[in-house]
Amino acid sequence: MRNTNKVFHLAIPCKELDETVEFYEKLGCKLARRYYDRVTFDFFGDQVVCHLSPENIDEQPKMYPRHFGITFLDKDEYDQTLEFATSQELPFFKKPMVRFEGKQEEHMTFFLIDPANNLLEFKYYHDIDMVY
């Protein structure tokens, strides 16, 4: 596992700052900084920076290969996040499902889509050895 002295950083495009802030704050992410051309969030302990670049929006996003998200080590946290996303009426790209059912790598997952069509996956593996 990683040490707590490291924070993963991801930069993604956004098409409009206000709707981006609204989406990520509804998801529970803390707005850390805002400039005229980007916003930075605490995304579940890591850093996500949304750069204003409407010309770089994927108009037909697909789950694979481009998405990012959280792999929960605790099923209750996965369930709480799913419940929270539903209660906040966040847009689902893919409703909750089970992947690789019956196999060691079986996991529960769902995808959200942000206002710039970036896909966010949230998942939980029943077998912790499958996380990496």
UniProtKB/TrEMBL annotation:
Domain VOC: 6-125
Pfam family, one: Glyoxalase
Superkingdom as given in the UniProt entry: Bacteria
PROSITE patterns hit by this protein: VOC
Protein name as catalogued: VOC domain-containing protein
